[in-house]
Q: What sequence folds into this?
């Protein structure tokens, strides 16, 4: 039985008792466990079918937790990022504090740790009620699109996880932006995400490897990058204005520009934010309807368009 609750207190009880619980964040739903409970962390990997060498993001609600988890002192630029964007959809890869006992399952035994402070009120409230940071990968089966609604979580984990903290559809619809801060002279974008790189570049210089946007990066910067992600069952084609479209009546289309063809299923987004917010739900709906071909309009490589494009390229190579 999976309990669906809107009570943060009730969801917190599961986590305190060493069980796993899905919860909403401003990006996508996460599948959480307290960092104190090894067995629960192991259950996350098992439930998702996630390879054990793919580390998890630690979600915190207060800067005291950051100070405990990372090696001090942090570079000043890191504090500028934190001041500008936390709480919010930015994950930082930071040097791990070697003096604490942390389950190696969390960070795949690396000497770094991924940390983010979500801005979703229920997520912050949950972390504070549990009185411990929470590890939380996206609450989807490995290889499925990240969940933007509690119903997607239920689709993947009904009767598999004990509890879902129910919220509304997530604000951004794509995962957090990840920056590697291990070399203070060279901050690197590891995953384009909900926080636009242009905003980050106003605060610090950022290295953006084109690598991220190629099909299968042979040497991934972030362990998770090497795994197949966001792949619907259909064949995904990224199209430009004059790309040829065949079998439209059997196919689905998502994009900003209206098309003359009559598609079986269509999602016309008002703007890039709307495109991002609807993308994963659209992929899931196409799977449900057994659609074989999905056409996706290539977004501009700016703002959240970069993060959309990264997801589309992965989906198209799946
Ligand atoms: O928006 C998000 O970030 C969502 C919500 C739930 O917070 N979480 C999420 O987690 O997307 P997940 O597990 O699906 O993606 C985490 C990514 C993976 O690609 C993983 O390899 C990378 O972060 N990662 C975690 N720790 C790392 C580390 N120490 N060094 C490099 N990459 C790391
Ligand atoms: Mg994920």
A:
């Amino acid at each position: 039985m999976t309990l669906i609750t809107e009570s943060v207190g009730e969801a917190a009880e599961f986590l305190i008792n060493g069980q796993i619980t899905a919860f909403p964040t401003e990006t996508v739903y996460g599948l959480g466990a307290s960092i104190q409970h090894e067995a629960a962390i192991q259950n996350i990997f098992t439930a998702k079918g996630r390879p054990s060498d793919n580390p998890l993001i630690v979600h915190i609600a207060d800067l005291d937790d950051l100070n405990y988890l990372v090696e001090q002192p942090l570079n000043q630029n890191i504090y500028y990022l934190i001041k500008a964007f936390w709480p919010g959809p930015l994950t930082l890869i930071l040097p791990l504090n070697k003096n604490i006992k942390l389950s190696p399952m969390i960070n795949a035994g690396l000497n770094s740790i991924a940390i983010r402070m979500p801005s979703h009120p229920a997520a912050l409230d949950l972390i504070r009620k549990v009185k411990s940071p929470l590890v939380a990968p996206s609450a989807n089966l490995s290889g499925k699109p990240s969940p933007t609604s509690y119903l997607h979580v239920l689709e993947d984990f009904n009767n598999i996880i004990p509890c879902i903290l129910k919220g509304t559809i997530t604000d951004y619809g794509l995962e957090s932006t990840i920056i590697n801060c291990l070399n203070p002279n060279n901050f690197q974008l590891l995953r384009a995400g909900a926080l636009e790189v242009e905003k980050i570049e106003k605060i610090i210089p950022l290295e953006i490897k084109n690598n991220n946007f190629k099909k299968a990066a042979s040497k991934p910067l972030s362990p998770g990058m090497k795994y197949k992600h966001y792949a619907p069952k259909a064949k995904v084609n990224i199209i430009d204005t004059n790309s040829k479209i065949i079998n439209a009546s059997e196919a689905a289309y998502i994009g900003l520009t209206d098309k003359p063809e009559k598609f079986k299923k269509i999602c016309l987004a008002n703007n890039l934010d709307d495109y991002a917010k609807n993308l994963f739900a659209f992929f899931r709906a196409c799977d449900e309807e057994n659609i074989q071909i999905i056409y996706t309009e290539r977004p501009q490589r700016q703002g959240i368009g970069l993060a959309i494009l990264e997801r589309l390229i992965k989906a198209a190579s799946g």
Observations:
- Residues 235-317 form a domain with the Rossmann fold fold (CATH 3.40.50.11030).
- The radius of gyration is 19 Å.
- Residues 211 and 217 are 6 Å apart (CA to CA).
